[in-house]
Structure formats: structure tokens, C-alpha cells
Amino acid sequence: MRLRSSGFTLVELLAVIAIISVLILVIGFTTNKALGHSRQAKCLGNTRSIAVSIKLYASDHGNKLPFGHNYTTGRKWYQSLKEYGGTDEVLKCPSNNEDAVGYGWNYPALPYRSDSASSMQKQNVNHWRHPGKLMLVGCWEKTTGAAEGYVYSPFPSQGQSSKWAEDGSMMGAIGRYHGDGANFAFLDGHCEWRTFDAIRPTAAGSEYFWGLKND
Ligand SMILES: [Zn+2]
Hints:
Helix content is about 30%, strand content about 15%. It is built from four helices and seven strands; from the N terminus they run αββαβαββββα. A hairpin with a 4-residue loop joins strand 6 (about 180-185) and strand 7 (about 190-195).
């Protein structure tokens, strides 16, 4: 009987290398997925903080929401929230490395210009009859024709649907960082991850989400 030489044969060595490579791939994949999930969870926490800061702002301003763009003070909605916990850290979506402001104001549903009568009416929290359905802010990303910090309604009657593309290349400036959906904060303070399909005009309840309906 031939004595087996110590060490690995070439075939054994190759097999071991192959197994290790597969393991590295699997570990890498699961770690990436886990990281993605933890960022998504942190982002959801941010939307919660933003919802709280909007509540605090409103209680300090006669139950009124901030303006998307306050022409009197020159402040955008996120700048109005600075003293109410809307810090730079809270405003950054952890999955969006590009943009300092990672969240967008529901436009044109929410009050926008401080010099518009309809905006002033929409400012009052009590104006909204379905606070659990009305979206305040959602993950934001830079899109052609979109201003920093605003997400746009896909309903043609609200005049912003050109910022949506059939093929999903433009989603009204909603951030596409968390799978096939994004995180949103609602007027009642609750926050949730919703799929893109659930916020399109054809989806049930999306008129309320975009503030088109308020009956
Ligand atoms: Zn996000």
C-alpha cells in the first residue's frame, strides 16, 4: 500500500478554494442584505422623528403645518423644523449618500407657498380629515425637474405627473433606495414602508395619500 503523502492534492486544494469562495459570496450577500435592512429601519426611524418634529412645530404655531416654502422667512419646510428636532442627521436617509436632504414634502397637497390662500387653508391640521392616510414626507432622490426636498404627485390633475415615468426611471423624486418601495411619514404620526405600486394613481387609497381627496 502506498503511503499517502502529507498535505493536500491539487484537486483537494481546488475543492477547498471553491467552497471558501462560495461561502464568501453567501456571507457577503447576507451582510449586504442585512445592512440594507438596517439602513431601511434607520430611515424609517428618521421619518418618525420628522413626523414628531412636524407635530411639535404645529403645536407651536396654532395647529398649523409649516409651509413647503415660507416666502416670508425664506425657509423651506425642513429648515422650519430645525428647532423642533429636524436635525441634519434626521434629514439624511442612510441609504442615500448623494443628498443632504433625504426626504421630500408631499407636493402639491401640503401647504406650499406662504402667500397663497389655498396653502393657508391646507396649513391647518384640522383641514385634513384622514390624517392616517395623508403622507407628509417620503424618501427623496434627485430627479430631473424636481426641487430638493419635494416629492411629486403622480395624478395628472395635480399637475406634477411629468415627474413620473412609466418605466420607473422617474418616480416623482421618491427615493428608490429601499427595494421596491420607500419610507413615508403620515399626518397622524405613523410611519411605514410602502411599495411604489401602492402609491400609484391606480392603487386603492392613493388619492388620500397624495391629498387629492379629503372627503
Ligand atoms: Zn430612506
